[in-house]
Structures are given as structure tokens and as C-alpha cells.
Amino acid sequence: MKRILLNHASGVQHHVPTWPPWLLCALVYCIMSMDGHDHVTTASASRTIAAQHAQVSVDVGSKTVEVPAWFRGFTSDWWRHNEKSPHNDNGILWGDAGLLTLDLNDPVLRRLTRELSPAVWRIGGTPQDEVVYVIGNPPECDSDKKISASVHAPGPLCLTMKRWQEILSFASDCRLQLVFGLNGMYGRSNANTPFNITNAHEFLRYTAGLDTSDVLFAFELSNEKLRRRAGISPAALAHDFMKLREIITNLWPHDKRRPLLLGPDSSERHVQLTKDFTSLAAGAIDGLTFHSYCVPYSTCDSSMFQLARLTPCLYPSRLFQSVASDFGIPVWAGENGPHHRGGAANCSDRFISSFWYLHQLGSLAKQGVEVFARSTLAGAHYGLLQKGTFKPRPDYFTAVLWGRLMQPYHFLQVSKSSEQMDLFAFASRSSEQSEEKADFSVLLVNMNPHQSIAVDLQLSGLPMGHQEQQQRREYHVSSTEPFSAVARIKSGDSTWLPLELTSSHHLPDIVPISVATSGPTHLSPASYAFVTWSSVKADKPLRFIVDRPWRSIVFFACITTIAFLLFRRRYVRYMGRPC
């Protein structure tokens, strides 16, 4: 738009631009709102032509499910090192990692276990119902010869109180919450009769006299015995739980120090029996526990990358949550693994297992399952640590990163545009107590073994007056190939470093790479990434100028231009006045 002014002295016409003030303000606002995001994305896309592009939107104001600090846990079992049957060679797989022979004083084991805290350590498993507590002189373990023989020979497993104190000491030193499964078959003659609670009562009385308030979290009774064949009837098991609840209440009269009572360690095949048991034992149990091994023992192929293959693994948790909700108690995934019978060789102990593991961790946390206990800490093929050497497997580092970055958090609502990607988002619970800073974490999993993904991360629902920090921290983990025994982490110079113990048997430095929040996150094929960043309170009116220096140049250029145009307009008007 132009306005013509006539200089009466010279007769010369001056063409002066007269931009409305609102148009100038809109121009400045649009320029200052630009963050170069589209430009960076386009530039990055030109470098990764083969990459798939995906949009991920995280609503940071949508805090829903609270994830406890000890959500991620693991189990330990009682298998003898040479125990074998026609259908089960678990003892052979375990080696010396069974509870009676595991070297709990090994400094490497303690150091690596401590890195997993806070966590639940669940002690149980099939041989749990063969354990006899060496207190009160039980006839099965009334001599040193019988106690020594129980480590190797078939029959009762003798747990001495010395060994029990070693277990408690290990849990305390490693900052674990101990869940201990009691023998529920001692003295039981058939499915409809109660078990002989005398030995368990003596054991509980002894334990109550110890200082276990920082470590003893809960007790369970029997392992997977709520079944129609060679099991216990719902009525008999409920009777035992009611009696056990009475004993625990009497021995630990203070609510805050009293261990929980959990059960019945059932599976999805026995949901109706679980309903019957829970109804009869209402008021006696504090949480409903289930066990699940969802991937067939013989399956270990590319289907492990398919979300459609992993989604059915969540079916058991939904079944048990529907039962638990009727009684107002939480659900615990008390024993879970990618494959049963100790896991699948060259699969449960390889990098490909991490895709199942992350899917279970994220999905069960989202569903509100209170604890997810992975089989197992050490031993067999699915152990986080290799038996004997305690060498960490790829899933161990997955567990470490999850514990450091994803809990204790609140789950956030997310949306995605790619079906090749698994993702979960969490907000730090500490953010609720801080007005200055809020922390967020997103887990991105590229399930495509052949194609990379460029992920555009977008935040919405930031707290009033907050803005994103300009750098986010990313931990990228991949491997040379899915069935590799060693995972790798991406370093700052874009090289991949193996995740292995140092020469002194310590964890390697696990450090993130810094990436501008305006750019995409690049996921390599068959990889996952933990992405963390913060929003901070913009406590200065012009904070954006300090945070993004290039904006100050644009800002002052706009101001100078507007000032020049206004000055020129006034000058021409002045010069055009008649004398």
C-alpha cells in the first residue's frame, strides 16, 4: 500500500509505504515463532533418504498411571545344579545359580545387582514347595548329612537360618525389596486338605525377630499349585492364606512394618480357579499375582519384532486385572519370561530378547500392573546375568537404563504415525513438586530390522510458563545383528561402543548424546532409544533471546526496520509541509 505526498515547494511526489501497525506486529510475531524445525527435518531427511518418517506427539499434561520405584524386578529360583527330569532340565541350565548354591558374597554379583535397584527380588519357583526351613528340628533336615545332601540329591531342600540371613543381607546391601515364596505343600496329603503350617510358622517367628523392615516386602504361599491336576483346590488354598494372614498379623502387629501377603501365582489357564480363590480369601491377600511365559519355547525368529506377535503377551495381565478390580487389590506380574523352561538358547540371552522385554515393561506399566518380575537374575538362558561368570546379557543393560530413566514416573499419553514403532512416555514424579523444572522420558523402539526411522518428537500440554530446553539427551542401543550376544550404545561421535564390563568388572560409562530439540531422533534398524529432556520455567520476559541467540538477531532487525519505517514516514511528512 502506498500513500502519495506532494512537496509544495518542489512539486515532487513522494511514495511512502504506510503499513498498518497490526501488520507489522503480526510480521514480528510470525518471525519470532519460527524455530527452524521444518528446515532441520528436511535437511536431515536428505541425509537419510531410506529412512521412514514418523510423528510422535507426547501430551506432558496427561499424567495417568503412577509407576512405582520398584516396578521392575527379577526372580531367583531354587533349582539344584544337576536336577533333570524327562520334561525339564532347569537344574542343568541353572548351574550354581540356585538359591542354595548361588555365591551371594561375590563382589561382581553384588555390584551388578545394586545397579538394578530399586527393584523387587522375588524368590520362588517350582522347587519352592520342596523347601524345608531348618528351625525347630524338622525330620527332613535334622542332621548335617541331610542338609548337605539336599543341595544335590532329590528330595527336600534344606534352608538353614544362616543361609536365610545371607539372603536377607544380600537384599539389604543391594537395596532390594524381597518377596519370599513359602512352601505351601508341606504335609499336605491331597488337594482338599490344609498344609502343615508348623514349619512355616517357626520360620516366620524367627524372621519376625530380625531387623528386616528395610528389605522384607512380602510373602507368597505355594507356586502355581492352584490347578485342577496335581494341585490345590481354591477352598483349601484360601483356608491356608487366611491362617497365614493371621500369623503374619500377630508377628508383625504394626501395619507399616508388616510384610504383604500375595498370591496365588496362577496362570491364564486357571482364571476361574483364581476368581474362586480370591473370593474365598478376600481380605487375606494384598495383591493378586500371576505368572506368564508368552513366547512359545520353540519360537525365536523375526516374529519377535512384530507388535502383533507381542501384543497377546498382555492378555494374562488383563485377565487378572479384571479379577483384582472386583476386590480392590493390585496385580503383580510375579514371574515372567520370554520363554518357559529356562528360556530358549541363543534367543532369550540375545539382543532380540530386549524387544519382548521393553514391550512388557512399557505395556504392563501403562496398564497399571504394580510389579513386573523378570525371570531371572542369574541362571538359565533368560537370566539377566550369565551363570557362574555373572557376565551381563543385553537385557541386563535394558533393565539398567529403564531403572535410571523411566521410574518412578507417571505414564503419559502418546500418539504415533508408524506401526513399525513401539513407544512409551513418562513424566518424572518429582516434576509435581517443582515449579521450575519438569522432566520427561520417551522410550522409542524401532521394530523394523531393515529400515531406520526419523522420529519427529512433539510436546504438548507443558506447564504454564514453561518451555522446552534446547537440548535433549538420547541413549541409543542397537547391535551388530539381532541375535548378537552383545548390545551396543551410540557415542557422541556417532560410533557404536559395546556394552560390556570393564577390565575391572565394572559397568562401562553409559552416557547420552545431546541432540537439539528442534531436530528429529534417528532410530537405526532394530534398535531402541531412551530420550529424556526437560522443560524449564521462563522466568524472564525475553528468555527466548538468551536461549536462542539467532532469534535476538532477527528480533532486533525487525525492531530496527519498524523504527526506520516510522521515522521515514514522519520525516517525509515534515518535509512535505508548506512553508
Strand content: 15-25%
Q: Roughly how many Å is the radius of gyration?
A: 31 Å
Average pLDDT: 83
Helix content: 25-40%
Secondary structural class = alpha/beta
Using the alpha-carbon principal axes, give the shape: elongated
Count of DSSP strands: 24
Number of helices: 15
Distance between the termini: 28 Å
Largest β sheet strand count, sense and barrel closure: 12 strands, mixed
* Residue runs with pLDDT of under 50 for 5 or more positions: 1-17, 28-49, 539-548
Task: Explain this structure.
- The structure is a single chain.
- The chain is an alpha/beta fold and 579 residues long.
- Helices cover 29% and strands 25% of the residues.
- The protein contains 15 helices and 24 strands.
- The strands form four sheets. Strands 3, 14, 15, 16, 17, 18, 19, 20, 21, 22, 23 and 24 form a twelve-stranded mixed sheet that branches.
- β15 (421-428) and β16 (437-446) form a beta hairpin.
- The two termini are 28 Å apart.
